[in-house]
């Protein structure tokens, strides 16, 4: 495992002039330059980005969902950026984002607006208008004769561009952005370290509020309040307890009252700090855990660290995934499953960044036949689980690949179940 030096690690969330912290200007610049470098090495003359994480990666704009293609960005091979957004967003961006010099009003060609319009003619109009706006900008910036990358594969939108004689390339664009985003900059890594620290504040709140009689939803509400207090955006996650911990409860957090002897499971996924997403599990027990719960936890923890010890630059995912349980260890008979691909989300490692799932993916259901190579600077979450009688335990670490192994960004104690005394 990678050992940090004394001065490495989480700094404060505020801006100060007396020490270096996350440098958001540097992060914006380095992300933009990585995307531009790959664009310039390709056959594309420009890329139209519709996916929110890709837009944020190139522009620094805080894309938080929206209603579909009511915001999109054109990046040209000469480095020019044109961004389209809804009326209020665009007007605010012109005031607040001086690093973007060409912000225009968007016509929403995909998503909620076309869907709600009720007529095919309206949908066709919106798609064609969106394509016309982008085509006009391509002509203005002199990239209309070269292929344009597009990071979504919507057939109607592609057809609208082809009507304008634009050569649309989707695979090249998607691959290009995946390649740009898979290895993180130092500031991106610090964002992930920061969101892990914020999640730990949420775990602490759980230890202070979970007790017999409290509802899962009440405990989750307390945890979310703590996350927001530290500057996070909580767009996912849940707390479950008792029988809702195995298998993972389909309704996520419920109004179930916690009871003595319960396992309490907290899943802080999709908690964002400056857009960078967490995936961080921990298991708690109300009172002293049973021997079965301790044994299950030990198995889950050991499986997790078996995988972590295999991860290093140059290692391939087909070899790393052997650290995860086989079908017997997956308890496939309980699920009536026969193949690893049926066990999605139970034991795997997945990349973290501006999306919850980025490269790499390490999973017995995929990696043996489709391996990829691990690179220094990749960031990921590694997760395992194990049943304990009628309940279940889970544990997960957030890590970054360093030159000689992984640095663990998550710091909540992992050696044993966290016991909550009440």
Automatic annotation (TrEMBL):
Q: What is this protein called?
A: M24 family metallopeptidase
Domain Peptidase M24: from-to ranges: 190-403
**Phylogenetic classification of the source organism:** Archaea, Methanobacteriati, Methanobacteriota, Stenosarchaea group, Halobacteria
**CDD domains attached to this UniProt entry:** APP_MetAP
Protein origin, superkingdom: Archaea
Tell me the ranges covered by the Creatinase N-terminal domain, including all copies: 31-106
Family matches, as Gene3D superfamilies: Creatinase/methionine aminopeptidase superfamily, Creatinase/prolidase N-terminal domain
Pfam families attached here?
Creatinase_N, Peptidase_M24
InterPro entries from the entry? Answer: Creatin/AminoP/Spt16_N, Creatinase/aminopeptidase-like, Creatinase_N, Pept_M24, Peptidase_M24B
Q: Which residues cross the membrane?
A: none
């Amino acid at each position: 495992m990678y050992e940090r030096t004394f001065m490495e690690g989480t700094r404060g969330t505020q801006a100060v002039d007396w020490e270096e912290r996350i440098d958001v200007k540097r992060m914006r610049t380095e992300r933009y330059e990585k995307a531009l470098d790959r664009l310039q090495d390709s056959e594309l003359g420009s890329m139209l980005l519709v996916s929110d994480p890709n837009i944020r990666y190139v522009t620094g704009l805080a894309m938080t969902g929206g209603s579909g293609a009511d915001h999109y960005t054109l990046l040209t091979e000469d480095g020019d950026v044109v961004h389209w957004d809804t009326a209020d967003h665009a007007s605010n961006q012109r005031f607040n984002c001086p690093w973007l010099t060409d912000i225009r009003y968007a016509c929403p060609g995909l998503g909620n607006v076309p869907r709600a319009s009720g007529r095919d003619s309206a949908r066709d109009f919106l798609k064609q208008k969106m394509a016309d706006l982008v085509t006009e900008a391509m002509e203005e910036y002199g990239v209309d004769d070269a292929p344009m990358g597009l990071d979504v594969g919507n057939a109607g939108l592609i057809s609208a561009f082809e009507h304008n004689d634009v050569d649309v390339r989707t695979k090249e664009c998607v691959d290009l952005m995946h390649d740009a985003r898979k290895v993180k900059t130092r500031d991106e890594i610090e964002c992930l370290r920061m969101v892990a620290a914020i999640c730990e504040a949420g775990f602490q709140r759980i230890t202070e509020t979970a007790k017999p009689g409290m509802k899962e939803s009440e405990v989750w509400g307390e945890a979310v309040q703590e996350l927001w207090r530290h500057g996070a955006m909580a767009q996912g996650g849940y707390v479950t307890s008792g029988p809702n911990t195995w298998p993972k409860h389909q309704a996520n957090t419920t109004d179930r009252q916690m009871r003595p002897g319960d396992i309490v499971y907290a899943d802080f996924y999709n908690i964002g700090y400056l857009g960078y997403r967490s995936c961080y599990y921990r298991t708690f027990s109300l009172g002293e855990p049973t021997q079965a719960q301790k044994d299950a936890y030990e198995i889950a923890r050991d499986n997790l660290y078996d995988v972590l010890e295999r991860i290093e630059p140059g290692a391939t995912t087909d070899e790393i995934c052997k650290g995860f349980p086989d079908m017997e260890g997956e308890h496939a008979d309980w699920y009536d499953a026969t193949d690893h691909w049926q066990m999605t989300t139970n034991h795997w490692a997945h990349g973290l960044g501006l999306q919850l799932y980025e490269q790499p993916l390490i999973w017995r259901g995929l990696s043996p036949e489709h391996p990829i190579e691990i690179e220094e600077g990749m960031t990921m979450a590694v997760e395992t689980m194990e049943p304990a009688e009628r309940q279940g335990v889970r544990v997960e670490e957030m890590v970054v690949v360093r030159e000689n192994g992984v640095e663990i960004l998550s710091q909540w104690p992992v050696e044993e179940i966290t016991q909550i005394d009440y």
